[in-house]
Amino acid sequence: MIAVGVTTLRLTRHQHAVMVGHCYDGLPDEACGLLLGPMIGGVATGVITDTRPCVNADASARTYTVAPKDMLRAMRAAESAGVEIVGVWHSHTHTTAYPSPTDVRQAVDPGWIYPIVSLRDGAPVMRAYRIVAEVITEVPIEIVA
């Protein structure tokens, strides 16, 4: 059992590749996607069972909104698998992998994890956060088999 409060985002190599690849596919706009997995007491455990690339309904290099149809599909997939939506990832095309003021305002669930993939430099940089009451806390990322 994973202690709630000691969260590490655990991604398989494949999940990590899906997330980063989708971010590159979204260029020149920001890309986004949803993470599915278990929650304990309304808080993501960090275990990810599925990564769901989504359409950025904003079609913008500065903001993102998960397309409503993709959100609905992810909700149905999570329910079918007995898990929940536990986070949303997106890319920053020209800035670091740190939540912008807009990202903080858009953080819809304090139990979720919010990974950001920066494509600003030569190699992608992924970092993850919890955002609770506008307080940003970094979450370690572990790539597992």
Brief account:
By secondary structure, this protein is an alpha+beta fold. It has helices at residues 13-25, 68-81, 101-106; strands at residues 9-12, 32-37, 39-40, 43-44, 50-54, 84-92, 114-118, 125-132, 135-139, 141-144.
Walkthrough of the structure:
- This protein has one domain (9-144): Cytidine Deaminase, domain 2 (3-Layer(aba) Sandwich).
- With 145 residues, it is of the alpha+beta class.
- The longest helix has 14 residues, at 68-81.
- A 6-stranded mixed beta sheet has the order 5-2-6-7-8-9. The protein has a two-stranded parallel sheet with strand order 1-10.
- It is built from 3 helices and 10 strands; from the N terminus they run E-H-E-E-E-E-H-E-H-E-E-E-E.
Topology:
Elements (H helix, E strand, L loop, with lengths): L8 E4 H13 L6 E6 L1 E2 L2 E2 L5 E5 L13 H14 L2 E9 L8 H6 L7 E5 L6 E8 L2 E5 L1 E4 L1
Parallel strand pairs: 1-10, 6-7
Antiparallel strand pairs: 2-5, 2-6, 3-4, 7-8, 8-9
Number of strands: 10
User: CATH H level: which superfamily?
Assistant: Cytidine Deaminase, domain 2
Oligomer class: single chain
Structural class: alpha+beta
Keywords summarizing the entry:
145 residues, two-stranded parallel ribbon, 34% strand, 23% helix, alpha+beta
